[in-house]
Amino acid sequence: MHLAYPAVLSALLFCTGLYGVLARRNAILVLMSVELMLNAVNLNLVAFDVWLSKAAEETLHSGQALTLFTIAIAAAEIGIGLAIVLAVHRNRGTADIDRLRDTAEGHENPAAGGPDSDTPATGTAAEKAEATA
Q: What tens digit of pLDDT does each residue of 2-40 get?
């Protein structure tokens, strides 16, 4: 088998995953696209390991060993990533990445009279802290 077949398949998988990361707004779909990109890298590692082992007398199978490490790291990454996405979804009610960007610290809602709005604020943070104390 030629090396070009798995290399082309890997390139297609990687491009599909890259498109998913750049175009999707749902955090779970972005994580799935990252996994697709990692699987494309794994396919390349194994294909080049098989191709290079035919040329060398000693076969170390280092590409296959790196693939096993990549699979283990990807499993840990998806576990932690899904836990974070579920925690954010419980708190915010959405897994939309664009909406999560708006909730970053230091950004206020312009409709609520924040520093970026043209409407005057009804009260500053210090006044609200005094009122609750």
A: 899 999 999 999 999 999 999 988 888 999 999 999 999
Closest Cα partner for 111 from 103, 99, 120?
120
Q: How does pLDDT run across 92-116, given as a tens digit for each residue?
A: 888 888 877 666 555 555 555 545 5
Q: 109: Cβ–Cβ under 8 A, 6 or more apart, which residues?
A: 102
SS3 of 72-130: the string is HHHHHHHHHHHHHHHHHHHHHCCCEHHHHHHCCCCCCCHHHCCCCCCCCCCCCHHHHHH
pTM: 0.69
Tell me the C-alpha distance between 119 and 111, whole Å: 8
Q: What is the DSSP letter of 57?
A: S
Nearest residue to 27 (alpha-carbon basis) of 85, 89, 104, 101: 85
Give which of 37, 52, 60 is closest to 3, Cα–Cα: 52
Closest to 5 in 3D by CA, of 50, 68, 67, 71: 50
Please state, in angstroms and rounded to a whole number, the distance separating the CA atoms of residues 67 and 112. 50
